[in-house]
Design goal:
The complex is a heterodimer of chains A (about 350) and B (about 475). Chain A is mainly alpha-helical and about 350 residues long. Chain A has a two-stranded antiparallel sheet. In chain B, helix 8 crosses helix 11. Chain B is about 70% helix and about 5% strand. With about 475 residues, chain B is mainly alpha-helical. In chain B, strands 1-2 form a two-stranded antiparallel ribbon. Chain B has a two-stranded antiparallel ribbon with strand order 3-6. Chain B has a two-stranded antiparallel ribbon with strand order 4-5. The chains are: A mainly alpha (about 350), B mainly alpha (about 475). The interface between A and B is large, with 106 and 108 residues. Bound molecules: CIS-heme D hydroxychlorin gamma-spirolactone and protoporphyrin IX containing FE (2 copies). CIS-heme D hydroxychlorin gamma-spirolactone binds next to helix 7, helix 8, helix 11 and helix 12 of chain B.
Chain lengths: ~350, ~475
């Protein structure tokens, strides 16, 4: 594989990671919103805050990762996307700030009003941000982002049937992934009520996401025939795999069988993303720019790949350490009934 | 000089400047605080000093808050590079983009180890805990190196070959990273980060001392950051001197604007204050020959003036000149503040009761921030009209998308709220600590705030408060 192809694969891996981890993170915000008033929603909300807590920042680093690859390895594509899709991407960026800030400040807010406000901002921005990102994805996939400085239409590029369906699909997928993950978290904490609660929601989200995916294929055939053709020609095994995995996951969810749902659900999402990637290969902007034409000089690509290798070697063990400490702390301190971390002295509680 | 600047361009420049100017303060804390925390932590362990450990613990909580805000504002910057300057990225991303990939690596590491360090307070052995803080401080340095190298590249672009089509045809990554401006911009920025953090923290405790709290906790809280920042200050002047020489050699238009030199030649005066009106310096104090002497150690040193620079390649003079004066003035004052501290020590006078010294120290943090922002204004506005010096004009790099004015307004509103929220959150922490201290009838050597900070693995999930809305029944 050439440096170019490797870089493209890394880009798509980053996108996949963001869709899964960032997606679950956004989706958790959606369920926070849907949990209802403070009385009714308190229990699920506590679980949600707890599940995203430790690592929420790492989840969004994947987005930065993708932006950096795009601008370093495929600069003209980055310029075209960021300028034509100025409006939805600005809104997505603002959504990310609002979400991150509200999440960070919510537990620190002392007053009732402040805490409610922070909670509302967190949930609403979790809801709309994936839509804008999805709409931008739909704009690229349907060939509405031409090369150049804002050469595409600032409005219709992302206000069109494909963008609309993909945006909704992104929202539904986030909710689906989050609910599936939350089932597992609730189980780990032995909270059977919450397990059932999120099972019901995961099932609902799975049905909606599946329906939107089917609708999406119909819309693509009319609105983005080139991509639809390529999907039929080359992407079909992945789309089929996604359909099968999704159906299997739904089946398990209906029977409230937890084993394997996470793998199947994630697999279904990953398959769609790679189906999109395969269908549009070797173009980065379908119909107007190929990966090869967009690529930066080999020196840049190779340097970028070296940075990734170093990053993987350094970051993977560090993250591993963090996760293992996280798990250990849960095991050790669960049920001790003290959350105060105090005298800065060693004490294994 | 006065240009006609298209309103979209003005909005884009203002938005970039505003968001960078905001992020840089948090970035300084992100680089400086880990070092302060580690020093306090090490002192606490070494001397078995609970006050030092308490300081380290509380500072690490502040670090978690500012890091979170730094991360979101940094994310916005990444978007803005494309949203506002697509031509810059589209043409030069292959060269200019690389340092940011390295930055990403460092900040990811920083985020992970901050989480571990904060988590480790009562769970890891003291030694392991202290060690887990070291990567945080180092990653901050590495991150600063890479971003500032990117900025230095804009001032002294290097390490690439332009093809016939104007696109970058070949890239030598190491030359991109180690360009001619990297050598002074990176250490200057790092020292600035320690100065800003140190003087800001010292300011807080100087106020405490002025209010009559003079226990060991407050005194150490003042001394550690103050000593570090005061030690950085003279080094900063020395590095700044290297920077000036670099600017004189490589960016004469910037230097002419900094010193308001209209007609080039020898015997240039040092101009303090003032602005240019119709090409004449007005309202300034001028010291004859000093600029020439400072630049080349002799009044005969000839300096390029604005008169030999084409009008459309001149930066705005008023703001660059005044920002330059502010940075150097404040830098000098901060060195003197350190000397004052040494003097008190030499005379064996207690700084804790030297009220004028403490008053000066109480505003030093604000001063350091102003110097920081001024320095960036000199660098960035002084580079105009270029975004990539000598190669790409800012006006040609800006997006053609409509609506930048609207996003600028939205961003200013949003960041104002964000800034206020950050201050309120820090204030809430302070109150909580004061309450804990009052309850303990002295310094509370036990904090109960870890459940509220935005980073780090949580302890017992069932016992965390404040996760949902008020009135959450405990699960
Ligand atoms: C605490 C902050 C601080 C202080 C006290 C000083 N500086 Fe500074 N200066 C900065 C913080 C700063 C900065 C971090 O804001 C800049 C912007 C870009 C950079 O690399 O550092 C800067 C830029 C900057 C530049 C422009 C470099 C360029 O355009 O490439 C020069 C010439 C100086 N400084 C010189 C000085 C001198 C002679 C000082 C002595 C008194 C001084 N600075 C004090
Ligand atoms: C190290 C990272 C930095 C990078 C990569 C960077 C990049 C840029 C870019 C791309 C622009 C727009 C083009 C231009 O106007 O030339 C800009 C403008 C500007 N930046 Fe920076 N910047 C950095 C740090 C900072 C910081 C920390 C400040 C703090 C105040 C700052 C202040 C400004 C200002 C005032 C402008 C507007 C200049 C003008 O148009 O007159 N920059 N910067
Ligand atoms: C002189 C300039 C800069 C310095 C010293 C700096 C430093 C930092 C530091 C220390 C952090 C960690 C968060 C914190 O401690 O607050 C951070 C976060 C970040 N910065 Fe900056 N920064 C600078 C400019 C920029 C620019 C120009 C960009 C983007 C174009 C940028 C993008 C980011 C991003 C994306 C993050 C979040 C990273 C993460 O969450 O892992 N920074 N920066």
């Amino acid at each position: 594989m050439s440096a170019l192809q490797l870089t493209a694969v890394v880009l798509w891996l980053g996108l996949t990671a963001y869709a899964v981890f960032g997606g679950a993170d956004f989706g958790a915000g959606f369920w926070d919103l849907a949990a209802g008033g403070s009385e009714r929603g308190g229990v699920p909300r506590a679980l949600i805050a707890d599940s995203i807590g430790p690592v929420w920042e790492a989840n969004h680093t994947w987005l930065i990762f993708d932006l950096v690859i795009l601008w370093t390895a495929f600069p003209p594509a980055f310029a075209a996307i960021m300028s034509t899709l100025f409006i939805p991407l600005t809104l997505a960026a603002l959504g990310i700030v609002l979400r991150g800030a509200a999440f960070a400040f919510r537990p620190m807010a002392t007053g009732l009003r402040e805490r409610r406000a922070a909670g509302a901002v967190f949930a609403l921005s979790s809801l709309v941000t994936p839509f804008f990102l999805g709409a931008a994805g739909g704009a690229i996939a349907s060939g509405r982002v031409p090369v150049g400085n804002a050469a595409g239409d600032p409005w219709t590029s992302w206000l069109n049937p494909t963008s609309f369906v993909v945006g909704l699909l992104a929202m539904a997928t986030c909710a689906y992934l989050a609910a599936v993950f939350l089932v597992a978290d609730a189980r780990r904490r032995s909270q059977p009520d919450l397990v059932a609660y999120f099972f019901r929601r995961a099932t609902l989200a799975a049905i909606v996401a599946g329906a939107l995916a089917v609708a999406g294929i119909a819309v693509l055939r009319v609105d983005a025939p080139i991509l639809a053709d390529e999907l039929r020609r080359r992407g079909w095994p992945l789309i089929l795999a996604s359909a099968l995995l999704g159906t299997a996951a739904l089946f398990l969810l209906r029977r409230q069988t937890p084993q394997g749902t996470r793998v199947l659900a994630v697999g279904a999402v990953v398959a769609v993303i790679w189906g999109w990637g395969v269908a549009q290969y070797p173009d980065i902007l379908p119909g107007s720019l190929s990966l090869a034409d967009a690529a930066a000089p080999t020196g840049s690509l190779e340097a970028l790949l070296i940075v990734f290798i170093v990053a993987a070697l350094v970051i993977a063990p560090s993250l591993g350490l963090l996760y293992s400490l996280d798990q250990r702390s849960r095991l050790v301190s669960h049920g001790l009934g003290s959350d105060s971390v105090d005298a800065p002295a060693p004490s294994h509680d | 000089m006065v240009y006609d600047v298209a309103p979209e361009l003005l909005a884009a420049r203002s938005q970039m400047a505003f968001t960078l100017g905001f992020h840089i303060i948090l970035a300084c804390l992100g680089v400086g605080l880990p070092t302060m925390v580690l020093i306090a932590n090490a002192i606490g362990l070494r001397r078995r000093d609970p006050a030092a450990l308490l300081l380290a613990h509380r500072w690490s909580t502040v670090m978690a808050v500012t890091f979170a805000v730094g991360a979101v504002t940094g994310t916005v910057l990444s978007f803005e590079l494309g949203l506002l300057w697509p031509v810059l990225m589209g043409r030069f991303g292959g060269a200019f983009g690389l340092p940011f990939a390295i930055e990403g690596l460092f900040f990811f590491l920083e985020a992970i180890f901050i989480a571990i360090y904060i988590y480790g307070w009562n769970r890891l052995s003291p030694r392991a805990h202290l060690l887990s803080g070291i990567p945080v401080a180092l990653a901050g340095i590495g991150g600063t190196f890479s971003v500032v190298a990117a900025n230095a590249w804009m001032n002294q672009p290097a390490g690439f070959v332009l093809g016939a089509d104007g696109r970058v045809a070949a890239v030598t990554p190491l030359e991109v990273l180690f360009n001619r401006a990297t050598v002074y911009e990176v250490p200057h920025m790092l020292l600035a980060a320690y100065m800003v953090t140190g003087f800001l923290l010292a300011s807080v405790y100087a106020v405490g001392l002025l209010r009559g709290h003079a226990d060991r906790y407050v005194r150490l809280g003042f001394l550690i950051p103050f000593c570090l920042a005061a030690a950085a200050a003279p080094l900063q002047v020395a590095v700044g001197d290297v920077a000036v020489r670099g600017v004189i050699a490589d960016q004469p238009a910037k230097f002419a604007a900094m010193e308001l030199i209209t007609a080039g030649g020898p015997n240039q005066p040092e101009t303090l204050g003032g602005i240019l009106v119709d090409g004449k310096v007005v309202g300034a104090i001028q010291i004859p020959n000093l600029a020439s002497i400072l630049a080349g150690f002799s009044p005969d040193t000839s300096i390029t003036g604005l008169n030999s620079i084409p009008i459309d390649e001149q930066p705005p003079t008023a703001i660059v000149h005044l920002a330059w004066n502010a940075m150097v003035g404040i830098g000098t004052a901060l060195v003197l503040l350190g000397v004052w501290g040494l003097f008190l020590r030499w005379r064996r006078r207690d700084y804790g009761s030297a009220r004028w010294f403490l008053r000066a120290a109480a505003i030093s943090g604000f001063g350091a921030v102003i110097a920081l922002e001024s320095g960036w204004i000199v660098t960035e506005v002084g580079r105009q009209p270029w975004v990539v010096f000598g190669i790409l004009r800012t006006a040609d790099a800006v997006t053609h998308a409509p609506g930048v004015q609207a996003t600028f307004i939205a961003v200013v509103c949003l960041y104002t709220v964000l800034g206020i929220a950050t201050l309120i959150a820090l204030r809430a922490l302070e109150r909580r600590w004061a309450r804990a201290d009052a309850d303990a009838g002295g310094r509370a050597l036990a904090d109960t705030t870890d459940d509220t900070i935005p980073y780090g693995p949580r302890g017992d999930p069932g016992n965390r408060h404040g996760s949902g809305e008020p009135g959450d029944p405990p699960p």
